[in-house]
Design brief:
This protein has 407 residues and is of the alpha/beta class. The protein has one domain: Spore Coat Polysaccharide Biosynthesis Protein SpsA, Chain A, CATH 3.90.550. Helices cover 51% and strands 13% of the residues. It has an 8-stranded mixed beta sheet, sandwiched between helices. A two-stranded antiparallel ribbon has the order 7-8. Strands 10-12 form a two-stranded antiparallel sheet. Strand 7 and strand 8 form a beta hairpin. The mean pLDDT is 93. This is Glycosyl transferase. One of its GO terms (molecular function) is transferase activity. It comes from Kineobactrum sediminis.
Length: 407
């Protein structure tokens, strides 16, 4: 059970009483009459054959308050798309599967590319962006949740707690971030958040001085959580990265667009586990190595837009400051684990810190070499101003795929 302490500059909604799922879902059903709710599921085809997603679908079949589920399907050929339509057909809610690799959506993507409006690389960010566009186009929902498809410890109370803050008509939140303890299998997980993001934010404060943006980012208990919810109007003008900086980019965008009292975070699970990325220490184009570089670059870019000037000396100081803070965190988490009967491998934790420190320098060098790099996907508001009927055409393309290939 979490405490009721409010830290940072955004509201934290705790799990204080373990309220019954039935009670919360009954209330969400009432909310749905005036504020229809939807869910976005960005998925790889391979996840349909994994352990997590089939169990997630079983839980979602019992959810009574959703008006729509939008599934973004990546890395699927025609046969796999047909199987995906069958896989998701058990969902009783209105749902559509976006075949991102199909000829219709690829044709739309090429048209957007011709006007420099398309995502520049494959990945979760691109998938989420097209799903957001479809949610705007369908007009079926006012409040939308998004969560990953690899959650091994999923149950539908996670979704109920995640969407509640933006679904309750008496609340004024536009955006809500989920958080949880990354504890599973007797271990504390979540190394990138614990040992990179938080120590890096604290190091940036020491090197650059206090800034509200850094205080804001440091307010989130799990900034890299892939679970968040939002009101429909957030979708129109948010710009999201297409790389591993997605979560940092989303938090930065809502900070830019909304007052802090319109944002919150909510405790959505006592335990949480999903698939783990490899360290990839020798290959910074994959795994946690690439993730750490993308995340650091996302922070540097956002700080630059706020008037911060970076140079090589700044990044050297930042690396040294980060390294000392992160090593202190290794000891902190080890002691926390021991007291709770959990395990933390100090050696592997320190190896991760060493890699992250090196990658902060790599991210800094990449930022200095390409300061005008634009990893952000344009907002749907901008896209619609350039191609006024784009959302309608996206809706039609998805419907035509569904009608043609559904068995």
């Amino acid at each position: 059970m979490g405490d009721f302490y409010q830290n940072g500059i955004i509201t934290t909604l705790h799990n204080l009483s373990h309220r019954s799922l039935e009670d919360m879902e009954n209330e969400l059903v009432r909310f749905s009459g005036s504020r229809p709710m939807g869910l976005i599921l960005p998925s790889l085809y391979s996840e349909l054959e994994g352990e997590a997603l089939p169990a997630i679908i079983k839980h979602l079949r019992e959810v009574p308050y959703l008006s729509e589920i939008v599934i973004g399907l990546d890395r699927a050929d025609e046969g796999e798309y047909r199987r995906a339509l069958d896989f998701f057909s058990d969902l009783p809610q209105h749902h559509r599967v976006l075949w991102n690799d199909g000829p219709r959506l690829q044709a739309l993507d090429r048209e957007l590319q011709a006007q420099d409006l398309a995502p520049r690389e494959l990945g979760k960010g691109r998938n989420v962006w097209y799903c957001m566009g479809y949610a705007l186009a369908s007009g079926r929902t006012e409040s939308v949740a998004l969560h990953d498809c690899d959650i091994l410890t999923y149950d539908r109370s996670l979704l109920a707690r995640l969407i509640y803050p933006v679904a309750n008509p008496q609340f004024n939140y536009e955006f809500c971030k989920g958080y949880y303890a990354r504890v599973a299998g007797g271990k504390i997980n979540g190394r990138v958040s614990r040992l990179l993001v938080t120590p890096l934010l604290r190091a940036l404060k020491k090197v650059l001085g206090d800034m509200e943006y850094l205080d804001y980012m440091d307010s989130f208990r799990y900034p890299l959580a892939g679970e968040f919810s939002f009101r429909r109007d957030v979708l129109t003008d948010i710009r999201i990265p297409s790389d591993w900086g997605l979560e940092i980019g989303v938090l930065s965008e809502v900070y830019r667009n909304y007052a802090n009292n319109r944002l919150c975070q909510v405790d959505i699970a006592d335990t949480y586990d999903h698939k783990h990325q490899e360290m990839s220490k020798e290959d910074d184009s994959r795994g946690l190595s690439k993730m750490s570089i993308d995340i650091a670059k996302a922070l540097f870019r956002k700080l630059a837009t706020r008037g911060v000037t970076f140079n090589s000396e700044t990044f050297r100081s930042l690396k040294a400051t980060y390294y000392r803070i992160a090593l202190d965190f290794v000891e902190t988490y080890h002691n926390d684990a021991v007291m709770n009967g959990l395990s933390v491998d100090i050696h592997s934790e320190e190896l991760a810190v060493e890699m992250f420190a090196e990658n902060i320098m790599k991210a800094g060098e990449a930022f200095l070499e390409h300061p005008m790099e634009r990893p952000f996907i344009p907002s749907w508001n901008r896209v619609a101003s350039a191609i006024p009927d784009i959302l309608e055409r996206l809706l039609v393309a998805v419907e035509e795929d569904n009608n043609e290939f559904r068995a």
